[in-house]
Amino acid sequence: MREFTEQELVRRQKADKLRDMGLDPFGQRFERDSYAQEIKDKYQDVDHDAFEQMNDCATVAGRIMFIRKMGKASFFSIKDKTGNIQVYISINDIGEDDYNLFKSADIGDIVGVYGKIMKTQTGEVTIKCLKYTHLVKALRPLPEKFHGLTDVEERYRRRYVDLIMNEDSRKVAFLRPKIIRCIQNFMDSQGFTEVETPILSTLLTGAAARPFITHHNTQDMDMYLRIALELPLKRLLVGGMEAVYEIGRVFRNEGMDPKHNPEFTLMEAYLAYSDLEGMMDLTEKMYTTIAKDVVGKMQYNWCGNVIDLTGPWKRISMTDSIKEKTGIDFKAHDITLEKALNLAQEHDIPVEEHQKSLGHIINLFFEKYVEETLIQPTFLYGHPVEISPLTKKNPEDPRFVDRFELFIGGKEFANAYTELNDPIDQLARFEDQIKERELGNDEANDIDMDFIEALEYGMPPAGGIGYGIDRLVMLFTEQETIREVILFPTMKENNR
C-alpha cells in the first residue's frame, strides 16, 4: 500500500471528523436547479444596484476550485459542468456551525450552495450563500499545475484530473458529442437510417489492417474485433434498407502516433442508387453543416495551416495529382510494370514484393510526392484497382476504380467508393487478396462467402463512404493529436 502525503493524511482526518459530526464524507443526493454559466449569462448585464430590488435565488453544486478565507466572511468558487461561479459566504448568513463546516473545506471538495444572486463591486456575478451543504470530501489535493505538465501522457492517463484543471480539455470533451449529434441529425435529415452491426467477426474483411484477436470460450474459436463496418452495412442494402449508416468503434492492431489510436471511431454510410459524386456532395455538405451549426466558423487553424471549408472543394484524380508534381503520366497506356519499377528505382521509392504491380507503384508515388501537399479540402479520386479490392471499376478505364479519399491538411479524412456489387468480380478480388497474403501482406482480406451470396441476390448500385470521426473532431476542435479528442486513449502500461 502506498504512503499518504501529509496533505492526504490531513484530508482523511477531516473525513473522519465529518463522520463524527454525523455527516457522510461522500455525500447523498442533492437537488440543484441552476448551473454556473446560465446564472452568469442571465445576470451579467444587470446593474449592481438593481440586485437590491431583486430576490432571485439559485441552488448549485460543484467542486471548490478557489478559497479566500477572511475571518467571518469568505469567497470561494465552485465549478460545475458549465464552468465556475463565485460564492460569498458569511457567518451572519448561515450561522456558526455551517460556517465552521465550510472553513474545514479544501480545494477539490464538492459542495452544494443555495443562495441569493448578487453582483460584487467589481461586477462579478456571485451567489450569496444562505445554505451550505457538504457533499464529497476530496482525499487527494488537486495539482497546482496540470495543464502545463511537460509529461503530457499524465494528462491522458489521468483524464479525470485533466478535465478538472484544463479548460481546453473540457471544451473538447463537450464539443465532440455535439459534433457527433450534428452528424446524426444531418444523416437522418438526408434519409439515412442509423444501425448497429457486430463488433466480433470470424473473418478479416472490410479494410486493409491488422486485427486484434480474441477468443470465444463457448464456441472455442478465435474471433476478430472488427476493423471496418462495411460488409454488414452492404448486406443491409441487399435487404432493402437503401440508406444506412453506423457510428461505432473499430479496432486496428497498429502503432500509435499523433494521428492514430488502436481503437477509434468510424462512421460508414451507404446509399443505394448513388455513386462517387453523390458521396462527394454528401461529405462537403456534412462538413459545412458541422462548421456552421456547431462551431460557427469556416476557417480552422490545424497543424500549422489555415483550413478553409468554404466550398466548392477541389476534385482531382490520383494520376493527375502525380503528374502535377513529377511530370509522370501513369494513366498513359504505354506505362508497363517494368517501366513503373524503373521509375520507382529512379525516384528512390522502395517496392516490396507484394507491391510489384502498377497500381501499388502509383500509390507509392502518390504517398511520396502528393499526399502531404493536399492542404485545403481535396477529393482525390481514381485509385488503381490493385489497392481497392472492394470498389467498382471505372467503366472507361478498368485499371482504376471509382473511389475517392478526402484529404485535409495533408491527412486522409474519408474514403469513399462507388460500391462493387458484382459478385463474380468481388470473388475474384477476394481471391487476389489471398494471393497477396501469401506474398507477405498481412493486411489482406479474407474471402467472405456469405457476403458473396448476399451480392448474388442483387445489391443496388450504391455509393459508400467511411469517415474517421476522431480526425474530423481534431479539425473542428483544432487539436493536433488524436489523444486530445479521445477521452481515454490507449496508453502504455503504467507501472506507477
Q: Roughly what is the average pLDDT, rounded to an integer? A: 93
Q: Low-confidence parts, pLDDT < 50 over ≥5 residues?
A: none
Task: Note the main sheet.
Answer: 8 strands, mixed
Structural category is: alpha+beta
How many DSSP E strands? 18
Number of domains: 2
Describe the strand arrangement of the main beta sheet, using strand numbers.
Answer: 6-10-11-18-17-16-15-14
How much strand? 25-35%
Tell me the CATH topology of the largest domain.
Answer: BirA Bifunctional Protein, domain 2
Name the CATH superfamily assignment of the largest domain: Bira Bifunctional Protein, Domain 2
Which outline best applies?
elongated
Which tags fit this structure?
18 strands; single chain; 26% strand; 8-stranded mixed β-sheet; OB fold (Dihydrolipoamide Acetyltransferase, E2P); elongated; 496 residues; BirA Bifunctional Protein, domain 2; alpha+beta
SSE diagram, text form:
Layout: H1 6-20, H2 36-43, E1 57-70, E2 73-80, E3 83-90, H3 91-94, H4 96-103, E4 110-119, E5 125-136, H5 152-157, H6 159-165, H7 167-189, E6 193-194, E7 200-201, E8 213-216, E9 221-225, H8 230-238, E10 243-251, E11 263-272, H9 276-295, E12 299-302, E13 305-308, E14 314-317, H10 318-326, H11 337-346, H12 358-369, E15 378-384, E16 400-408, E17 411-418, H13 423-438, H14 449-456, E18 462-468, H15 469-477
Parallel strand pairs: 3-5, 6-10, 14-15
Antiparallel strand pairs: 1-2, 1-4, 2-3, 4-5, 7-9, 8-9, 10-11, 11-18, 12-13, 15-16, 16-17, 17-18
